[in-house]
Amino acid sequence: VQLQASxxxxxxxxxxxxxxxxxxxxxxxxVSMGWFRQAPGKQRDVVADITSNGNTxxxxxxxxxxxxSRDTAKNTVYLQMNSLKPEDTAVYYCNAxxxxxxxxxxxxxxxxxxx
Length: 115
Prior knowledge:
Layout: E1 3-6, E2 9-12, E3 17-23, E4 32-38, E5 45-51, E6 56-58, E7 66-71, E8 76-81, E9 90-97, E10 103-105, E11 109-114
Parallel strand pairs: 2-11
Antiparallel strand pairs: 1-3, 3-8, 4-5, 4-9, 5-6, 7-8, 9-10, 9-11
């Protein structure tokens, strides 16, 4: 399984970015796909995920600001990030979770929010 993430960058506080994660196989082969982030010196935490049946889950810190969605025809998951804050600065990782809990990870993409 290969996950190609893109869309990070530098943005001012209050701005928006959209991350994309293209999978090398049908997203229906995964239990879920999602985004995690890791700031310097901190652990990697889940940001949002979307299950194979389309249910979404968000970390409390991003609810109302971030939206996860998918394009099943393109095997791609998106993370629309609005009202970005400096504390959203991190490396963002795409994740695909298989049955039995096996995780696949994309290469991280840096998101930097300036104040």
